[in-house]
Design brief:
Number of domains: 2
Helix content: 25-40%
Strand order of the largest sheet: 2-8-7-6-5-3-4
Shape: globular
Strand content: 15-25%
CATH topology of the largest domain: Aspartate Aminotransferase, domain 2
Order of helices and strands: EHHEHEHEHEHEHEEHHHEEHEEEHEH
CATH architecture of the largest domain: 3-Layer(aba) Sandwich
Largest sheet: 7 strands, mixed
Structural class: alpha/beta
Radius of gyration: 21 Å
Length: 371
């Protein structure tokens, strides 16, 4: 098997597994004041410090969550409820992860007004569109840092600059970008930032939300006083430790860019007709449209050939739900909705595997085109 779906999830790094296994022996509750509890608390505190440093944040600005979805939801609902006395207008984009889109849709049902900004053909939000969408009652702008399907990096710092003299606060979903590009919350000028561990060779079920000091946030969970009363529930110590370890591992960003070029050259040599979706993209994501190929047939054939890839389309009971990202980029009638596939790279992948995969993909595409 050649795994080319790292944007969906990544294998845990061996060092992460070792550190988590050791942490499992530290069984105390981090909220307990006795020595067993203090031992667990030290692991959590050390991990929080490590993770904060990766984005230029303060330790007390990191809130541990169960992953990216909870981090996004905590930011969006937390700000909406905390600031609804100032207004009920929120700005987002049409290409956000469903953790953001569905949260916004729920807030619409609760009486909030949501502006879903379009993107250009490269999948990029226009800063001018954000500026024009800002109202006096806008309380939140939430736009992802790097798109999970086509990889396009958004102009978050420029968008945040618009809000410096406005009451609205800024949240960015950095789940796909974290670990792949340099992130500093002060350079980006964001108030909230979401991250998930399983995208960077850490465990599933753990993530964090960065909350800038004094930024408004109403908790979604009620119970104990964990996370400075911002997220009740006993901390998942082994997962937190594994997350911190994963955050210290170096990602081969330049290598992934070379993998992209390697695959494209192989397809060009094979005289395939293809186009790349997105521009100014994250280093590990390559979204490709193969002319004349049905994506479902392609994915099935690739899987049979031992190659794991993914599409923006979700197929259930024979019905195709086109990628909302590609619809936003190209329109509902574009052929690219039905012939685009995402390949993504990560830890453990070799140049030899990438070459083997590229050749196999070329053979499969040629066979499908000639059917």
């Amino acid at each position: 098997m050649i795994y080319l779906d790292y944007a969906a999830t990544t294998p845990m790094h061996p060092q992460v597994i070792r550190d988590m296994t050791a942490a499992m022996a530290v069984y105390g509750n981090p909220s307990s004041i006795h020595q067993a509890g203090r031992a667990a608390r030290k692991l959590v505190d050390d991990a929080r410090r490590t993770l904060a440093q990766t984005i230029g944040a303060k330790e007390n600005e990191i809130i541990f969550t169960s992953g990216g979805t909870e981090a996004d939801n905590t930011a969006i609902f937390g700000v909406a409820y905390a600031n609804q006395h100032k207004g009920k207008h929120i700005i987002t984009s049409q290409i956000e992860h469903h953790a953001v889109l569905h949260a916004c849709e729920q807030l619409e049902r609760e009486g909030f007004s949501i502006t879903y900004l379009p993107v250009d053909s490269t999948g990029c939000v226009r800063v001018q569109d954000v500026k024009e969408a800002l109202h006096d009652d806008t309380i939140l702008v939430t736009i992802m840092l790097g798109n999970n399907e086509v990889g396009t990096i958004q102009p978050i710092a420029e968008i945040s600059e618009l809000l410096q003299m406005h009451q609205a606060v800024m949240h960015t979903d950095a789940v796909q970008a974290y670990g792949m590009i340099s992130i500093d919350v002060n350079d980006l000028q964001v108030d909230y930032l979401s991250v998930s561990s399983h995208k960077i060779n850490g465990p599933k079920g753990i993530g964090f939300l960065y909350q800038r000091t004094n930024a408004p946030l109403q908790p979604l969970l009620y119970g104990g006083q964990q996370e400075r009363k911002r997220r009740a529930t006993t901390e998942n110590v082994p997962a937190i430790v594994g997350f911190a370890t994963a955050s210290t591992l170096t990602s081969d960003r330049d290598v992934y860019e070379r993998y992209k070029q390697q695959m494209q050259k192989t397809w060009q040599d094979a005289q395939l007709s293809f186009t790349i979706n997105g521009a100014h993209t994250l280093p590990h994501i390559l979204n490709v449209s193969f002319t004349g190929v049905n994506i479902e047939a392609l994915l099935v054939n690739l899987d049979m050939a031992g190659i794991c890839a993914s599409s923006g389309s979700a197929c259930t009971a024979g019905a195709v739900d086109p990628s909302h990202v590609l619809v936003a980029m190209y329109g509902a009638d574009s052929d690219k909705l039905h012939n685009s596939v995402r390949f993504s790279f990560g830890y453990g992948l070799t140049a030899a595997q990438v070459q083997e995969a590229a050749v196999t993909i070329a053979n499969v595409v040629q066979r499908l085109v000639n059917l």
